[in-house]
Fold:
Amino acid sequence: MSEPQAESTSPAAIVHLSPNQKAWRRFKRNRPAVISAWFLIGLLLLVIAWPTILGIASHAGPKGKAFAEKYNPSTLNDVAFQAPSASHWFGTDDHGRDLLSRILYGAQISLSVGAVGALVSLIIGVLWGAVSGYLGGRWDEAMMRFVDILYSLPSIIFVIVLITMLEGRIKTLMDHFNSPELTKTSRLLLLFVGLGAVSWLNMARIVRGQVLSLRTRAFVEASRTLGARHGHILLKHILPNVIGVVIVYLTLTVPAIVLYESFLSYLGLGIQPPMASWGSLIAEGAGQINTIRVYWWLLVFPGVFLTGTLLALNFLGDGFRDALDVRGNKV
Structure:
């Protein structure tokens, strides 16, 4: 009798898989990373869909208007400090506002700050590190010394000083446009500027180290010998080979920036009322703790959302790192 055919998971079948397919298989075997990915997808869908649901309900007759009014995060009600119940799953705050809605609307601020900071890190950090590592010599020395100077400054202190110095000037500039909405978002713009100014430093260092090891490789020397321009070599040959490291570090940059924003908002230097973020919600909950009664839900639920999101982002980053690291990994 002939021997049975090898299964599709045999080494012979695995050889034909592309590097991306092998990385995807390794990622799917990392259960914490997969669960984290689904958690983040569900959270993003809920954060995006909740305002739409309230908007649709507000145009759906008297019952819909009552529902939208009840769960509107800006609506003041007489049910202050109501404990979690079927009417308000996460309870209400000191002004009777639904805490679940405030958490979901606050997620928009916290996650958008993290996303903008990661985008700044991606654009400035990758370009700065790639150019520095590729040019080498005096250019590399000068560019990295500038990074070292910024890196030596305490990040959170630097952001606080920057916000304090620029806030008055930006508000004055916003007042010239006679737009209250722009004035309210001035602190958000300052957070984007401040956190973006310190988010790209580590990325630049990491990319620079990778480029230094790649610029002397045979495929780069061959492209240079054939007359390729420096920009072409960077964009077509070097940067595609560091994209894996960039993606991994990008997923680890987002939780760090979200934590920075939450800490600043907790100190009162971040998002200002009536806007809210997870950090400001935690600060409000901590302010309601007293010796007579502890309104635990005001502190626990925002803290759970913040902690869960940070853990999920870190697990996701670890999953990407393990999946893209081909050394010592099996398919």
